[in-house]
Amino acid sequence: MCKSASALSVAGMKNTAIEVHDLEKSYDGQPVLKGVSFAVGAGEIFGIAGRNGAGKTTVVEILQGLRRRDGGRVDVLGFDPGRERRRLRPLLGAQLQTSALPERIRVGEALRLFARLADGRTDWREFAEAWRLVPLLDMSFGNLSGGQRQRLFVALAMINRPRVLFLDELTQGLDPVARREAWQLIEQARDHGTTAVLVTHDMEEAERLCDRVAVLHDGRLVTCARPVEIASSVGTVRLRFSSPGAAGLEGLGRVPGVTSIGYDGATADITVEPVAVVRVATELGRLDLAPSDFTVIRPSLEEALVPLLNGDNR
Amino acid sequence: MTALADITSRQRRSMTALAALTPTELRLLVRDWTVLVFAFVFPPLVMLILAGVFGTRATVGFGWRNPQHYYVAASVGVPVIALALVGLPVTLASYRERGVLRRFEAFGVSPSKVIGTQAIVTAGLILVGVVAVLAVAAPTYGIPHITHPIQTALGLAAGTLTLVLVGIAVGLATSSARSAQAIGLIAFFPLYLLGGGGPPKGAMTGAMHSISNALPSAIPAVADPWLGLPGLGTQLAVFAAWAAAALVAICWLVRRAAHQP
Q1: Distance, in angstroms, between A285 CA and closest chain B CA?
Q2: A275-303: string of b/e by CB count within 10 Å (b at 16+)?
Q3: Which residues of B touch A169 (CB under 8 A)?
Q4: For B216-258, what is each residue's pLDDT tens digit?
Q5: Which residue of A6, A209, A250, A297 could cross-link A238, Cys pair, CB 3.0 to 4.6 Å?
């Protein structure tokens, strides 16, 4: 759990890029964020997950200074986005969930315009090539497909070589190949020192890309950890292996953490708590039942997150 | 590099938003053929027809001026109304509706800069529209002598400023490009017809004349000093009142937008 931002620094991180303490925000008296705290390390890919209306987009908009907070403290690269947005802005890149470009602007014009707005020396053609936009340079924005628009948005978000990159629904509308290419480019940006904050519903993306994931529910942070930690902290693990008979399997029932044992005449299917995996393996070795196809099936991040997204953080 | 040094370096290199946005916005507006037709074809066409219909015989309705001269001078104000009330609000409302303003804002270009760019581009196109009217008038009816050149320029500038502010307010107040277009067109025709673009003000009944005097139409603001007719002082006072109201509305609408989810 991320109760305080200071408790969230990640081992090995030299600096903190973003710190959020007790962030609060209401719309028309309706609280949207109720004391959210977390920290993001420099060079980290940090995911924010949650159901629709959980407050994810509001958090990233406040971090960019696009929205005023009602309470709490926010620090992005040493600046308060609410008061020092103009100074902070050149260091940020953003791909927003609901935004567009003028219908008649051409892809090449958009890239050139944003490159000029960001930094007169940026070579926009480099971004056009990296995001496979070269064949589309003369096409109007209004004629682009959803995936082509998304590629353009991400290219525009990165065109100022930001120190912190906010990506809201990064791969929405991208085909599987483009999705993986997007992941690679984000990882490349991270390798060059860019910190990325990724708002996503795609748990495969979070698991594959994020160093840590924060889960928001009803305006509160319910967990904040590495995807593998979240996946293993919730639910149970299944162990499957071939077994010539049921003899010996009964003994596993006495191993602490084993919750059920199944056997279909050829394969054993044992459900255990995550901490019991090693104990079961040890016990199998002691019983001289060391199967060569011993498989540990952990819950996916999505399976682990569903109860959290429903507000069950116990 | 520290964050502060990085910022200074980036800010030094970056162009001003207005300088970067203006040529792009100009190209985008030029690609909108409906605006082009309304701003550059409609005013000269109507001028050609009306000036041809009424001929050259001066009457009381035209303030004892040559009707052809009247319609040339009056048509100079038409692109102002067309571009400020039909072109500008539609673009702004569309930008708000579709999240274009949000995208620019996330890139550090505030909505006020985008709005400012739109105002500059609109003013530039108004000048092109005025030139188009005069270019068509010169070989057909001739360009009449300008009686009060400074007052005429003042009327054109004040009318442009006021109607651009009104257009911005309409663009920010309306929820969609369609509604902005509807309101723009509803506003255009009274300002065009009651401003003297069709029947001259001297031919209007008392009630219509009174309504006409309260409207911020650029047509009499240009035509009256051009032809030596009185009334610019009143027109400037009307412009000031409308511009102040539009400014208050713009400030309120911008503040309201900042607090919406």
Answers
A1: 55
A2: ebbebbbebbeeeebebeebeeebbebbe
A3: none
A4: 999 999 999 999 998 889 999 999 999 999 999 999 998 887 6
A5: A297
What's the mean pLDDT when you consider all of chain A?
Answer: 85
Give the separation between CA A202 and CA A301, rounded to whole angstroms. 10
Give residue B34's domain range: 17-258
Total residues belonging to chain B: 261
Contact across the interface for B3 and A78, Cβ inside 8 Å: yes
Q: For residues A138 and A128, give the distance between their C-alpha atoms in angstroms, rounded to a whole number.
A: 12
Chain A closest CA to B260's CA: distance in Å? 7
For each of the domains in chain A, give its residue range(s) and CATH number, in order of start: 6-227 (3.40.50.300), 236-298 (3.30.70)
B7 lies in some domain? no
Q: List the single residue in A78, A90, A105 with the smallest CB-CB distance to B10.
A: A90
* Domain annotation covers residue B1: no
Whether B6 maps to a domain, the answer reads no
Which of B105, B109, B255 should one mutate to test binding to chain A, selecting the residue with the greatest count of A CBs within 10 A?
B105
**CA distance, residue A217 to nearest chain B CA (Å):** 18
Total domains in chain B come to: 1
Instruction: Please state, in angstroms and rounded to a whole number, the distance separating the CA atoms of residues A93 and A60.
Output: 11
Q: What confidence tens digit (pLDDT) does each residue in B156-200 have?
A: 999 999 999 999 999 999 989 999 999 999 999 999 999 999 889
Strand partners, A140: A106
Indicate whether B10 belongs to any domain: no
CB contact under 8 A, B103 and A160: no
